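SEQUENCE-TO-STRUCTURE ENTRY
===========================
What this section holds: a protein sequence and its matching fold, both as plain text.
Question of interest: how does this chain fold, as expressed in backbone structure tokens?
***
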Amino acid sequence: DSELQCDGNRSGHLQNGEIGFGAPVNEDVIRLIAAHLAEIGDKLDKDVQMRVVNDLAQHFLNENLSREEIMRQMSRVVRELAQAAPSDMEQEKVMLVLTMILVKKIGNTVPSLLQRVWNTAVNFINQQFHDYIVEMVSA
């Protein structure tokens, strides 16, 4: 029922209708939100230049930088990219999607960094957007 699959996802439905935030959610709402975020991602993906991706990847490659410094760099890059996004999009949504685009692009460019970039992105999202995500899935 809740068997771990090879891609890291759990099979079956959300346990007790809850996601990691402890609030009951409607799976159809989650699917709609995911589809909307993917649509935003497709629009923004082309705007993220490889120079920006490579610069951020260099920070991740620098073993002398602390996790906090790398998180600050990620935050700076996401905020700068978000400023160029269309103003009709919710800023939090744009920043959330841009974070995931950066993870994807860095992972594609330097696959050995994927785990470090992913962990940093998850921490960044939890710190910056936790309340926003809870509000989105419980709406």
About this structure: Residues 27-138 form a domain with the Apoptosis Regulator Bcl-x fold (CATH 1.10.437.10). The helical segments are 27-45, 50-61, 67-83, 91-109, 114-137. DSSP finds five helices and no strands in the chain.
